Amino acid sequence: MERKLLLLGLLQMQEMHGYQLNEMIDAHLSTSIDFKKPTIYKLLGQMRDVGWLEQREEEAGNRPPRRVYSITPAGRDAFKALLRESLAAYKPTDFIDHISLAFLDHLSPAETVPLLENRKAQIQALLHRVQSYDPHQGSMQLMVEHQIRHLEMEITWLEEVIERVVTKGIGMPGGTHHDRNE
Amino acid sequence: MERKLLLLGLLQMQEMHGYQLNEMIDAHLSTSIDFKKPTIYKLLGQMRDVGWLEQREEEAGNRPPRRVYSITPAGRDAFKALLRESLAAYKPTDFIDHISLAFLDHLSPAETVPLLENRKAQIQALLHRVQSYDPHQGSMQLMVEHQIRHLEMEITWLEEVIERVVTKGIGMPGGTHHDRNE
DNA sequence: TATAACATGTAACAAGTTACATGATTTC
DNA sequence: GAAATCATGTAACTTGTTACATGTTATA
Protein backbone atom coordinates (compact mmCIF):
# COMPACT_ATOMS: atom_id res chain seq x y z
CA MET A 1 0.00 0.00 0.00
CA GLU A 2 2.90 2.38 0.61
CA ARG A 3 3.63 2.54 -3.09
CA LYS A 4 0.04 3.47 -3.82
CA LEU A 5 0.23 6.10 -1.11
CA LEU A 6 3.26 7.59 -2.80
CA LEU A 7 1.61 7.72 -6.21
CA LEU A 8 -1.54 9.24 -4.77
CA GLY A 9 0.51 11.78 -2.90
CA LEU A 10 2.37 12.85 -6.01
CA LEU A 11 -0.82 12.99 -8.06
CA GLN A 12 -2.35 15.17 -5.39
CA MET A 13 0.15 17.86 -6.33
CA GLN A 14 -0.64 17.64 -10.02
CA GLU A 15 -1.90 15.19 -12.60
CA MET A 16 0.80 13.18 -14.29
CA HIS A 17 1.45 10.26 -16.58
CA GLY A 18 3.44 7.18 -15.67
CA TYR A 19 6.67 8.19 -17.28
CA GLN A 20 6.57 11.49 -15.48
CA LEU A 21 5.91 9.84 -12.12
CA ASN A 22 8.83 7.57 -12.74
CA GLU A 23 11.07 10.56 -13.42
CA MET A 24 9.92 12.31 -10.23
CA ILE A 25 10.61 9.29 -8.11
CA ASP A 26 13.92 8.72 -9.80
CA ALA A 27 15.01 12.29 -9.33
CA HIS A 28 13.87 12.82 -5.75
CA LEU A 29 13.62 9.46 -4.05
CA SER A 30 15.89 7.03 -5.81
CA THR A 31 18.40 7.04 -2.96
CA SER A 32 15.82 5.88 -0.48
CA ILE A 33 13.30 3.76 -2.32
CA ASP A 34 13.05 1.23 -5.12
CA PHE A 35 10.08 1.78 -7.37
CA LYS A 36 10.32 0.67 -10.95
CA LYS A 37 8.36 1.60 -14.04
CA PRO A 38 6.45 -1.63 -14.52
CA THR A 39 5.22 -1.42 -10.96
CA ILE A 40 4.16 2.17 -11.43
CA TYR A 41 2.19 1.40 -14.56
CA LYS A 42 0.54 -1.57 -12.93
CA LEU A 43 -0.52 0.29 -9.81
CA LEU A 44 -1.83 3.21 -11.86
CA GLY A 45 -4.01 0.77 -13.78
CA GLN A 46 -5.26 -0.83 -10.60
CA MET A 47 -6.12 2.47 -8.98
CA ARG A 48 -7.89 3.62 -12.11
CA ASP A 49 -9.90 0.40 -12.11
CA VAL A 50 -11.16 0.95 -8.58
CA GLY A 51 -11.97 4.59 -9.26
CA TRP A 52 -9.20 6.29 -7.32
CA LEU A 53 -7.80 7.77 -10.49
CA GLU A 54 -9.20 9.15 -13.69
CA GLN A 55 -7.38 8.55 -16.93
CA ARG A 56 -7.18 10.98 -19.79
CA GLU A 57 -5.36 10.27 -23.07
CA GLU A 58 -3.15 12.97 -24.47
CA GLU A 59 -2.34 12.45 -28.13
CA ALA A 60 0.92 13.93 -29.36
CA GLY A 61 1.91 13.18 -32.92
CA ASN A 62 2.49 9.56 -33.67
CA ARG A 63 4.02 8.41 -30.45
CA PRO A 64 2.26 6.33 -27.79
CA PRO A 65 -0.30 8.64 -26.20
CA ARG A 66 0.32 9.89 -22.71
CA ARG A 67 -2.06 8.50 -20.16
CA VAL A 68 -2.48 11.30 -17.73
CA TYR A 69 -3.90 10.37 -14.33
CA SER A 70 -5.67 12.68 -11.95
CA ILE A 71 -6.91 11.83 -8.51
CA THR A 72 -10.66 11.49 -7.95
CA PRO A 73 -12.58 12.37 -4.76
CA ALA A 74 -12.58 8.67 -3.91
CA GLY A 75 -8.84 8.66 -4.46
CA ARG A 76 -8.45 11.61 -2.14
CA ASP A 77 -10.36 9.75 0.55
CA ALA A 78 -8.29 6.66 0.02
CA PHE A 79 -5.15 8.74 0.24
CA LYS A 80 -6.11 10.21 3.59
CA ALA A 81 -7.13 6.84 4.96
CA LEU A 82 -3.89 5.24 3.84
CA LEU A 83 -1.93 8.16 5.16
CA ARG A 84 -3.48 7.97 8.63
CA GLU A 85 -3.00 4.24 8.77
CA SER A 86 0.55 4.38 7.57
CA LEU A 87 1.56 7.21 9.87
CA ALA A 88 0.18 5.50 12.94
CA ALA A 89 1.60 2.06 12.25
CA TYR A 90 5.28 1.36 12.58
CA LYS A 91 6.60 -1.56 10.54
CA PRO A 92 9.87 -2.82 12.01
CA THR A 93 12.88 -2.61 9.76
CA ASP A 94 14.26 -5.89 8.50
CA PHE A 95 17.90 -6.40 9.43
CA ILE A 96 18.58 -9.48 7.35
CA ASP A 97 21.03 -7.52 5.21
CA HIS A 98 23.12 -6.86 8.28
CA ILE A 99 23.37 -10.47 9.38
CA SER A 100 27.01 -10.67 8.33
CA LEU A 101 27.86 -8.45 11.30
CA ALA A 102 26.73 -11.29 13.52
CA PHE A 103 29.50 -13.50 12.18
CA LEU A 104 32.33 -11.02 12.28
CA ASP A 105 34.28 -13.17 14.67
CA HIS A 106 34.69 -15.92 12.11
CA LEU A 107 37.28 -13.83 10.30
CA SER A 108 40.56 -12.45 11.59
CA PRO A 109 40.63 -8.73 12.48
CA ALA A 110 43.28 -8.22 9.80
CA GLU A 111 40.81 -9.41 7.22
CA THR A 112 37.70 -7.91 8.75
CA VAL A 113 38.81 -4.32 9.02
CA PRO A 114 39.36 -3.60 5.30
CA LEU A 115 36.03 -5.21 4.48
CA LEU A 116 34.28 -3.00 6.98
CA GLU A 117 36.15 0.07 5.74
CA ASN A 118 34.90 -0.73 2.28
CA ARG A 119 31.38 -1.01 3.56
CA LYS A 120 31.77 2.29 5.32
CA ALA A 121 33.02 4.00 2.17
CA GLN A 122 29.87 2.94 0.36
CA ILE A 123 27.64 4.35 3.05
CA GLN A 124 29.59 7.56 2.99
CA ALA A 125 29.28 7.83 -0.77
CA LEU A 126 25.54 7.42 -0.50
CA LEU A 127 25.39 10.00 2.26
CA HIS A 128 27.17 12.53 0.10
CA ARG A 129 24.77 11.90 -2.75
CA VAL A 130 21.80 12.45 -0.46
CA GLN A 131 23.34 15.57 1.04
CA SER A 132 23.82 17.07 -2.39
CA TYR A 133 20.09 17.03 -3.09
CA ASP A 134 18.37 20.39 -3.36
CA PRO A 135 15.88 20.79 -0.54
CA HIS A 136 12.56 19.19 -1.39
CA GLN A 137 9.25 20.91 -0.92
CA GLY A 138 7.16 20.65 2.22
CA SER A 139 7.33 17.53 4.31
CA MET A 140 8.93 15.68 1.41
CA GLN A 141 12.13 17.09 2.82
CA LEU A 142 11.61 14.90 5.87
CA MET A 143 12.39 11.82 3.80
CA VAL A 144 15.77 13.25 2.92
CA GLU A 145 16.57 14.31 6.45
CA HIS A 146 15.50 10.97 7.80
CA GLN A 147 17.78 9.14 5.44
CA ILE A 148 20.67 11.42 6.33
CA ARG A 149 20.15 10.69 10.01
CA HIS A 150 20.00 7.02 9.25
CA LEU A 151 23.18 7.01 7.23
CA GLU A 152 25.06 9.07 9.79
CA MET A 153 24.03 6.61 12.45
CA GLU A 154 25.18 3.70 10.32
CA ILE A 155 28.57 5.29 9.83
CA THR A 156 29.23 6.04 13.49
CA TRP A 157 28.01 2.58 14.37
CA LEU A 158 30.34 0.97 11.85
CA GLU A 159 33.24 3.06 13.14
CA GLU A 160 32.59 1.77 16.61
CA VAL A 161 32.46 -1.79 15.38
CA ILE A 162 35.74 -1.34 13.56
CA GLU A 163 37.28 0.16 16.67
CA ARG A 164 36.13 -2.80 18.70
CA VAL A 165 37.48 -5.26 16.19
CA VAL A 166 40.83 -3.51 16.21
CA THR A 167 41.11 -3.37 19.98
CA LYS A 168 39.68 -6.86 20.27
CA GLY A 169 36.61 -6.91 22.42
CA ILE A 170 34.06 -7.64 19.84
CA GLY A 171 31.01 -9.24 21.34
CA MET A 172 31.15 -8.54 25.08
CA PRO A 173 32.04 -11.74 26.98
CA GLY A 174 35.43 -13.26 26.16
CA GLY A 175 33.78 -15.39 23.52
CA THR A 176 35.81 -14.27 20.53
CA HIS A 177 36.34 -17.26 18.31
CA HIS A 178 37.68 -16.87 14.83
CA ASP A 179 39.22 -20.13 13.80
CA ARG A 180 42.79 -20.85 12.99
CA ASN A 181 43.48 -21.21 9.29
CA GLU A 182 44.20 -19.69 5.87
CA MET B 1 21.99 -15.12 0.10
CA GLU B 2 21.84 -13.48 3.52
CA ARG B 3 19.44 -16.12 4.73
CA LYS B 4 21.78 -18.86 3.64
CA LEU B 5 24.60 -17.08 5.38
CA LEU B 6 22.60 -17.06 8.58
CA LEU B 7 21.81 -20.76 8.39
CA LEU B 8 25.40 -21.63 7.62
CA GLY B 9 26.56 -19.46 10.49
CA LEU B 10 24.27 -21.16 12.94
CA LEU B 11 25.18 -24.62 11.67
CA GLN B 12 28.83 -23.71 12.11
CA MET B 13 28.22 -23.62 15.85
CA GLN B 14 26.54 -26.99 15.91
CA GLU B 15 24.56 -29.33 13.69
CA MET B 16 20.83 -28.81 13.87
CA HIS B 17 17.54 -29.76 12.28
CA GLY B 18 15.11 -27.32 10.71
CA TYR B 19 12.75 -27.03 13.61
CA GLN B 20 15.64 -26.27 15.90
CA LEU B 21 17.00 -23.59 13.59
CA ASN B 22 13.59 -22.03 13.47
CA GLU B 23 13.46 -21.92 17.27
CA MET B 24 16.90 -20.32 17.45
CA ILE B 25 16.00 -17.63 15.01
CA ASP B 26 12.68 -17.06 16.67
CA ALA B 27 14.24 -16.75 20.08
CA HIS B 28 17.22 -14.59 19.23
CA LEU B 29 16.48 -12.70 16.06
CA SER B 30 12.74 -12.40 15.67
CA THR B 31 12.76 -8.70 16.54
CA SER B 32 15.10 -7.89 13.71
CA ILE B 33 14.48 -10.38 10.94
CA ASP B 34 11.69 -12.31 9.28
CA PHE B 35 12.59 -15.87 8.48
CA LYS B 36 9.85 -18.44 8.36
CA LYS B 37 9.88 -22.20 8.60
CA PRO B 38 9.03 -23.00 4.99
CA THR B 39 11.90 -20.83 3.84
CA ILE B 40 14.26 -22.50 6.26
CA TYR B 41 13.33 -25.98 5.10
CA LYS B 42 13.63 -24.99 1.48
CA LEU B 43 17.06 -23.42 1.85
CA LEU B 44 18.34 -26.37 3.86
CA GLY B 45 17.29 -28.66 1.03
CA GLN B 46 18.96 -26.45 -1.55
CA MET B 47 22.21 -26.25 0.36
CA ARG B 48 22.20 -29.99 0.89
CA ASP B 49 21.69 -30.50 -2.84
CA VAL B 50 24.74 -28.42 -3.73
CA GLY B 51 26.87 -30.13 -1.10
CA TRP B 52 27.16 -27.36 1.45
CA LEU B 53 25.33 -29.44 4.04
CA GLU B 54 25.18 -33.07 4.97
CA GLN B 55 21.92 -34.58 6.07
CA ARG B 56 21.55 -37.26 8.69
CA GLU B 57 18.21 -38.76 9.72
CA GLU B 58 17.55 -39.20 13.38
CA GLU B 59 14.71 -41.62 14.08
CA ALA B 60 12.81 -41.11 17.31
CA GLY B 61 9.83 -43.33 17.91
CA ASN B 62 7.07 -42.94 15.40
CA ARG B 63 7.23 -39.23 14.73
CA PRO B 64 8.65 -37.64 11.59
CA PRO B 65 12.40 -38.23 11.74
CA ARG B 66 14.64 -35.27 12.46
CA ARG B 67 16.78 -34.25 9.57
CA VAL B 68 19.93 -33.04 11.15
CA TYR B 69 22.18 -30.89 9.00
CA SER B 70 25.88 -30.38 9.46
CA ILE B 71 28.10 -28.12 7.45
CA THR B 72 30.57 -29.68 5.00
CA PRO B 73 34.01 -28.31 4.07
CA ALA B 74 32.46 -26.93 0.89
CA GLY B 75 29.82 -25.30 3.08
CA ARG B 76 32.49 -23.77 5.26
CA ASP B 77 34.16 -22.28 2.19
CA ALA B 78 30.86 -20.97 0.91
CA PHE B 79 30.17 -19.45 4.30
CA LYS B 80 33.43 -17.56 4.34
CA ALA B 81 32.97 -16.35 0.79
CA LEU B 82 29.44 -15.16 1.48
CA LEU B 83 30.56 -13.56 4.70
CA ARG B 84 33.34 -11.57 3.05
CA GLU B 85 31.07 -10.49 0.25
CA SER B 86 28.26 -9.52 2.55
CA LEU B 87 30.47 -7.62 4.98
CA ALA B 88 32.09 -5.57 2.26
CA ALA B 89 28.91 -4.70 0.37
CA TYR B 90 26.41 -2.26 1.78
CA LYS B 91 22.86 -2.62 0.53
CA PRO B 92 20.93 0.62 1.06
CA THR B 93 17.92 0.41 3.31
CA ASP B 94 14.56 0.80 1.65
CA PHE B 95 12.53 3.66 3.08
CA ILE B 96 9.27 2.94 1.35
CA ASP B 97 7.63 2.16 4.69
CA HIS B 98 8.38 5.69 5.82
CA ILE B 99 6.85 7.40 2.82
CA SER B 100 3.89 8.60 4.88
CA LEU B 101 6.23 11.04 6.58
CA ALA B 102 6.59 12.78 3.24
CA PHE B 103 2.91 13.65 3.24
CA LEU B 104 2.58 14.79 6.81
CA ASP B 105 1.50 18.24 5.70
CA HIS B 106 -1.69 16.91 4.18
CA LEU B 107 -3.16 16.48 7.64
CA SER B 108 -3.72 19.06 10.34
CA PRO B 109 -1.23 19.12 13.21
CA ALA B 110 -4.09 18.31 15.59
CA GLU B 111 -4.63 15.07 13.76
CA THR B 112 -1.02 14.31 12.95
CA VAL B 113 0.43 14.46 16.44
CA PRO B 114 -1.58 11.61 18.01
CA LEU B 115 -0.86 9.42 15.02
CA LEU B 116 2.85 10.05 15.37
CA GLU B 117 2.68 9.50 19.12
CA ASN B 118 1.11 6.16 18.43
CA ARG B 119 3.86 5.29 16.02
CA LYS B 120 6.42 6.31 18.58
CA ALA B 121 4.83 4.12 21.24
CA GLN B 122 5.20 1.12 18.99
CA ILE B 123 8.86 1.78 18.38
CA GLN B 124 9.39 2.21 22.09
CA ALA B 125 7.64 -1.07 22.83
CA LEU B 126 9.89 -2.85 20.37
CA LEU B 127 12.94 -1.19 21.86
CA HIS B 128 12.03 -2.45 25.31
CA ARG B 129 11.60 -5.96 23.99
CA VAL B 130 15.01 -5.85 22.36
CA GLN B 131 16.63 -4.38 25.46
CA SER B 132 15.24 -7.18 27.59
CA TYR B 133 17.16 -9.82 25.62
CA ASP B 134 19.93 -11.62 27.44
CA PRO B 135 23.26 -10.78 25.86
CA HIS B 136 23.99 -13.00 22.88
CA GLN B 137 27.25 -14.78 22.35
CA GLY B 138 30.15 -13.34 20.39
CA SER B 139 29.49 -10.94 17.58
CA MET B 140 25.87 -12.06 17.48
CA GLN B 141 25.42 -9.42 20.16
CA LEU B 142 26.23 -6.79 17.53
CA MET B 143 22.91 -7.46 15.86
CA VAL B 144 21.09 -6.58 19.05
CA GLU B 145 23.14 -3.49 19.70
CA HIS B 146 22.71 -2.34 16.14
CA GLN B 147 18.96 -2.65 16.35
CA ILE B 148 18.92 -0.77 19.65
CA ARG B 149 20.90 2.07 18.08
CA HIS B 150 18.54 2.08 15.16
CA LEU B 151 15.41 2.21 17.29
CA GLU B 152 16.81 4.93 19.53
CA MET B 153 17.57 6.99 16.48
CA GLU B 154 14.08 6.45 15.14
CA ILE B 155 12.57 7.62 18.41
CA THR B 156 14.59 10.81 18.70
CA TRP B 157 13.93 11.51 15.06
CA LEU B 158 10.20 11.08 15.51
CA GLU B 159 10.26 13.30 18.57
CA GLU B 160 11.87 16.02 16.53
CA VAL B 161 9.31 15.63 13.78
CA ILE B 162 6.50 15.87 16.31
CA GLU B 163 8.10 18.96 17.80
CA ARG B 164 8.31 20.54 14.39
CA VAL B 165 4.71 19.72 13.60
CA VAL B 166 3.60 21.27 16.89
CA THR B 167 5.60 24.44 16.45
CA LYS B 168 4.73 24.55 12.77
CA GLY B 169 7.82 24.60 10.65
CA ILE B 170 7.56 21.22 9.10
CA GLY B 171 9.43 21.06 5.87
CA MET B 172 11.75 24.08 5.76
CA PRO B 173 10.47 26.72 3.32
CA GLY B 174 7.05 28.19 4.14
CA GLY B 175 5.42 25.57 1.99
CA THR B 176 3.12 24.04 4.58
CA HIS B 177 -0.08 23.09 2.85
CA HIS B 178 -2.64 20.93 4.57
CA ASP B 179 -5.98 21.56 3.02
CA ARG B 180 -9.05 22.98 4.62
CA ASN B 181 -11.72 20.42 5.37
CA GLU B 182 -13.54 18.05 7.75
C1' DT C 1 23.12 8.34 -38.53
C1' DA C 2 23.40 6.38 -34.26
C1' DT C 3 22.05 7.13 -29.70
C1' DA C 4 19.37 8.92 -26.05
C1' DA C 5 14.97 10.34 -24.38
C1' DC C 6 10.04 9.74 -24.70
C1' DA C 7 6.13 6.60 -23.71
C1' DT C 8 3.77 2.42 -22.93
C1' DG C 9 3.40 -2.03 -21.38
C1' DT C 10 3.86 -7.57 -21.08
C1' DA C 11 6.08 -11.84 -19.58
C1' DA C 12 9.12 -14.33 -17.04
C1' DC C 13 11.31 -14.76 -12.88
C1' DA C 14 12.55 -14.23 -7.85
C1' DA C 15 12.07 -14.62 -3.23
C1' DG C 16 9.56 -14.52 0.17
C1' DT C 17 5.00 -15.36 3.25
C1' DT C 18 0.53 -17.54 4.58
C1' DA C 19 -2.37 -21.24 4.69
C1' DC C 20 -2.80 -25.97 4.59
C1' DA C 21 -1.70 -31.02 5.45
C1' DT C 22 -0.10 -34.69 8.44
C1' DG C 23 0.65 -37.16 12.46
C1' DA C 24 3.00 -38.42 17.08
C1' DT C 25 3.96 -36.97 21.84
C1' DT C 26 3.78 -34.30 25.83
C1' DT C 27 1.33 -31.38 28.98
C1' DC C 28 -2.85 -29.38 31.25
C1' DG D 1 -9.39 -35.83 26.48
C1' DA D 2 -8.08 -31.33 24.54
C1' DA D 3 -4.49 -28.42 23.43
C1' DA D 4 0.20 -27.26 22.78
C1' DT D 5 4.66 -28.79 21.13
C1' DC D 6 7.41 -31.48 18.08
C1' DA D 7 8.63 -32.23 13.19
C1' DT D 8 8.22 -32.15 8.41
C1' DG D 9 6.89 -30.18 4.28
C1' DT D 10 3.73 -28.59 -0.04
C1' DA D 11 0.80 -25.32 -2.57
C1' DA D 12 -1.01 -21.12 -3.39
C1' DC D 13 -0.35 -16.45 -3.25
C1' DT D 14 2.00 -11.81 -2.99
C1' DT D 15 4.66 -8.41 -4.50
C1' DG D 16 8.06 -6.86 -6.49
C1' DT D 17 12.14 -6.73 -10.19
C1' DT D 18 14.48 -7.68 -14.74
C1' DA D 19 14.28 -8.52 -19.37
C1' DC D 20 11.91 -7.94 -23.43
C1' DA D 21 8.90 -5.66 -27.05
C1' DT D 22 7.60 -1.59 -29.70
C1' DG D 23 7.82 2.62 -31.99
C1' DT D 24 8.60 7.97 -32.25
C1' DT D 25 11.17 12.10 -31.83
C1' DA D 26 15.01 14.92 -30.42
C1' DT D 27 20.00 15.23 -30.01
C1' DA D 28 25.14 14.34 -30.80
Quaternary assembly = homodimer
Report the CATH C-level class of the largest domain in chain A.
Answer: Mainly Alpha
In the CATH hierarchy, the third-tier topology of the largest domain in chain A is known as: Arc Repressor Mutant, subunit A
The total number of structural domains of chain A is 2
CATH architect. name of the largest domain in chain A: Orthogonal Bundle
What does the secondary structure layout of this molecule look like, with pairings?
Two copies of one chain form a homodimer.
Chain A: H1 2-13, E1 16-17, H2 18-29, H3 37-49, E2 53-58, E3 66-71, H4 73-88, H5 109-131, H6 140-166
Chain A binds a DNA duplex (28 and 28 nucleotides) through helix 3.
Task: Outline the structure in words.
The structure is a homodimer of 182-residue chains. With 182 residues, chain A is mostly helical. The first copy, chain A, folds into two domains: 2-88, Winged helix-like DNA-binding domain superfamily/Winged helix DNA-binding domain (Arc Repressor Mutant, subunit A, Orthogonal Bundle), CATH 1.10.10.10; 96-166. Chain A is built from six helices and three strands, in the order H-E-H-H-E-E-H-H-H. Chain A has helices at residues 2-13, 18-29, 37-49, 73-88, 109-131, 140-166, and strands at 16-17, 53-58, 66-71. A three-stranded antiparallel beta sheet of chain A has the order 1-3-2. The N and C termini of chain A lie far apart (49 Å). Mean pLDDT of chain A is 91; it is low at 172-176 and 178-182. The interface between A and B is large, with 70 and 70 residues. The first copy, chain A, binds a DNA duplex (28 and 28 nucleotides) through helix 3.
